[in-house]
């Protein structure tokens, strides 16, 4: 019993000795921070940074301003099978043809777009003249292409030659609503599936327009 108590006292003494040694050890002198605050007064005002009220991040609906022509299902304007698109579907209300230079990445097959009439192509006259027709159609789906010589252009199919001539050559704003067949939907108002209405159709023929 006495040996057990002596062992405890000896251990307690070692702990006290360690604490005393630690307190007596010399401590390093505190060092001043090397960084000092400073301010620079500019001669010219700095451009304001974006606030939370300004749009940030990617554009919700990418858009392109393009030349837009019109034609109908005539073999002289398309090919020997003017009612079949380049993707193998039948021409129907809302099918749109896009020039091949834009199919690679900007507006691929399967994209759904909304069109805005900006007026005649050369002088911008009568903007919105056909907007009620475009709005009546709603969304267009890219399922056809155009002749190799065409660039930065879309082609809208009409049911008759006279309507295509009346459309003429116009400038349109093409707003992408869905990118490709399986791409992200960029517009929350997009319908779950495409349904055309017999108001206006776009593009026919695998080799498409003039």
Order of helices and strands: HEEHEHEEHE
Strands of the widest sheet, in order across it, are: 1-5-2-4-3-6
Q: Beta-strand percentage?
A: 15-25%
Cα-based radius of gyration, to the nearest Å: 36 Å
Number of strands: 6
Mean pLDDT: 76
- What helical percentage do the residues reach? 10-25%
Query: For the terminal residues, how far apart are their CA atoms?
Result: 113 Å
Poorly predicted segments = 50-58, 201-210
Q: What's the total helix number?
A: 4
Short summary of the structure?
20% of the residues lie in helices and 20% in strands. It is α/β, with parallel strands linked by helices and 210 residues long.
Protein architecture, described:
The chain has 210 residues and is of the alpha/beta class. It has a domain at 76-210. Helix content is 20%, strand content 20%. The protein is built from 4 helices and 6 strands. The chain has helices at residues 2-24, 100-103, 131-137, 161-167, and strands spanning 63-71, 95-98, 112-120, 140-145, 153-157, 170-178. A 6-stranded mixed barrel has the order 1-5-2-4-3-6. Residues 50-58 and 201-210 have low confidence and may be disordered.
Blueprint of the fold:
Elements: H1 2-24, E1 63-71, E2 95-98, H2 100-103, E3 112-120, H3 131-137, E4 140-145, E5 153-157, H4 161-167, E6 170-178
Parallel strand pairs: 1-5, 2-4
Antiparallel strand pairs: 1-6, 2-5, 3-4, 3-6
């Amino acid at each position: 019993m006495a040996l057990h108590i002596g062992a405890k006292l000896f251990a307690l003494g070692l702990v006290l000795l360690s604490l005393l040694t630690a307190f007596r050890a010399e401590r390093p002198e505190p060092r001043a921070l090397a960084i000092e605050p400073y301010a620079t007064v500019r001669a010219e005002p700095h451009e304001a940074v974006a606030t939370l009220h300004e749009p940030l991040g990617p554009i919700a609906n990418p858009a392109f301003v393009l030349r837009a022509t019109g034609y109908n299902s005539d073999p002289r304007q398309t090919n020997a099978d003017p009612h079949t698109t380049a993707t193998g579907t039948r021409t129907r209300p809302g099918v749109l043809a896009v020039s091949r230079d834009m199919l690679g990445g900007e507006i691929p097959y399967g994209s759904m777009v909304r069109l805005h009439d900006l007026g005649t192509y050369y002088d911008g006259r009568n903007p919105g003249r056909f907007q009620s027709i475009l709005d009546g159609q709603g969304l267009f789906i890219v399922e056809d292409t155009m002749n190799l010589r065409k660039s930065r252009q879309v082609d809208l199919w009409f049911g008759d030659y006279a309507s295509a001539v009346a459309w003429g050559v116009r400038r349109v704003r093409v707003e992408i609503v869905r990118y490709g067949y399986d791409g992200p939907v960029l517009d929350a108002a997009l319908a779950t599936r495409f349904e055309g209405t017999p108001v206006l159709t776009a593009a026919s023929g695998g080799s498409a327009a003039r």
